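Morning, I've got a small favour to ask if you have a moment. I'm working through a protein record and want to make sense of it properly. The fold is given in discrete form, as structure tokens running alongside the sequence. Can you walk me through what the tokens say about the fold? Thanks so much in advance, here it is:
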Amino acid sequence: MADKKTLKKYLIEFLEYLEIEKNRSDKTIRNYDFYLQRFLSWYGNDKKPENLESEDVRKFRLWLNRLIDAHGEPLKKNTQNYHLIALRSFLKYLAKRDIQTLAPEKIELMKMPDREVSFLEGADLNRILEAPMVNMKNSPKDSEILTAFRDKAILEMLFSTGLRVSELTNLKKDNVNLQKQEFTVMGKGKKSRIVFLSEQGKYWLKKYLELRKDLNPYLFISHDKRTGGQKELKSSGKKLTRNYSSITPRSIQRIVQKYAKLAGITKPVTPHTLRHSYATDLLQNGADIRSVQAMLGHASITTTQIYTHITDRELQNIHKKFHGKNRLK
């Protein structure tokens, strides 16, 4: 006898499964919900799992490819793939529960071009890391000194640790052990990993924290005079309490862009560019790709393999240096 539940009802159970059993982050669950709600709105919320066929998926792909977003642009190919990945995961969940539906392996993802990695090295890297101090010398107002030291510490931290911008903004002062030059960070999928501070990262972070006179527990905060990273709230007992906040990811993006421009770097530079620069630097100096995977917090080695252009180049150099030296000229 066919199950009477609709795909809409199974979707609710699938999202609960992601939350409880798979321990996915709130953001991941929201994304899955968005992509699958879009599919069900197109396909029909009242349809049963056993009704889904390959032809339906083909038509959905065609619809996605022709869809125009709120900005009047067609959906990017990787965004279209996210919809298909979500649907395939949903079908895998149904198959795991022995619910008759379309086999998840019937859904093939769109082939994407190899991802290009943007990173900084050499003079460009040095100039962006030095830019906050150079800029401070040009306009040494007392009100700007703390901000300059903060920005310098942020840039050094991003390059020293390879942290994602969201991981950096969530850090509190108590999280970082300056003596041991290492600390644990909570990454994607609520997985923890150890990251390491360089001597430069340790030095500038210590300098910045020594200048701080506030009680805000976050490692990096806004030094806007109006808020100072804190807001006053009235409690039920009519007492004023402080609700502290950290600097926002968007603010860090602006900081990186600001100093990239001051450093004369013409290509787009984001916090993730410094994460790529961190990984590239490790690989160019002899680190193996499995170690870099662990330090970046990648769940799969496939993700880390976007850096194979670095390892391939190093292998080529090794080949030229060591191969065929005993052959007659």
About this structure: The chain has a mean pLDDT of 86. The two ends are 79 Å apart (CA to CA). The longest helix spans residues 77-96. The chain is about 55% helix and 5% strand.
